[in-house]
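2024-03-11 09:14:02 DEBUG pipeline.ingest accepted 1 chain
2024-03-11 09:14:02 DEBUG pipeline.ingest length=223
2024-03-11 09:14:03 DEBUG pipeline.predict start
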Amino acid sequence: MFDEVAAGYDRTNTVLSLGNDRLWRAATTRAVAPRRGQRILDLAAGTGASSVALAASGADVVAADFSAGMIAEGRRRHGRIPNLTFVEADATALPFGDDEFDAVTMSFGLRNVNEPKKAIAELLRVTKPGGRLVVCEFSQPPSRVFNGFYRFYNDRILPVVAKAVSTNAEAYDYLNESIKDWPDQRTLAAWLREAGWTDVAWRNLSFGIVALHRATKPAASGR
């Protein structure tokens, strides 16, 4: 499914999010706070839009995704950036060593993993002690009134717009359903703590349509 929408994926996301995807990406980059000399994993990177923003700092960035089509499109667009590498990877069995990355991040991909808790544990494994995690993901707006408007948009307006601008409108029907089924902010925070992450916190973006979760791997590895 993701292979089929790779070419127009970023454009469609910008249209469907009313341009908010750029604000969410900027907030994620600030939270990761990449620096030259660091090694950063951007998991579920898609075509690499978020990875490019991280690599602009001079950090060595690995853009990983399960979709071969997304990786191919990312390489086509950004393959000349010297400190950006594209890798096909399964989030539940990452092809990286223990304690390899200074920071790990995942934007709008965790809810698409069959075993999200396993992916969270894998991210912990490959992060250096003291390293950071940033997860940007759709969430549940806390306001009942706003949540009603948001559900109306997702159920009635988004499918129509997706059909007009996407090469595979059915894929966005799935994405809409995955957003509905995804747990709220407190539940995801609990999953992170359960996996062993510490200093877990989050803040809502766009009234809670999206939540930016942050955490740290304990300085002394518990494994």
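2024-03-11 09:14:41 DEBUG pipeline.report Residues 144-165 form the longest helix (22 residues).
2024-03-11 09:14:41 DEBUG pipeline.predict end
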